[in-house]
Amino acid sequence: MIEFQHVYKSFGGVAAITDVSLTIAKGEFTVLMGGSGSGKSTTLKMINRLVEHDRGRILFQGEEIRSFRPEDIRRRMGYAIQSIGLFPHWTVEKNIAAVPALLGWPAARIRDRVTELLELLDLAPNTYRQRYPHQLSGGQQQRVGVARALAADPEVLLMDEPFGALDPVTRASLQKEMVRIHAASGKTIVLVTHDIDEALALATRIVLLQHGQIVQAGSPTALLTHPANDFVTDFVGRSDIGIKLLGLATVAQHVRPFETAPGTPLPAHTPLREALSTLVARACDRLPVVDAQGQPLGVLHFADLWQRPP
Question: Which pTM value belongs to this model?
Answer without folding.
Answer: 0.87
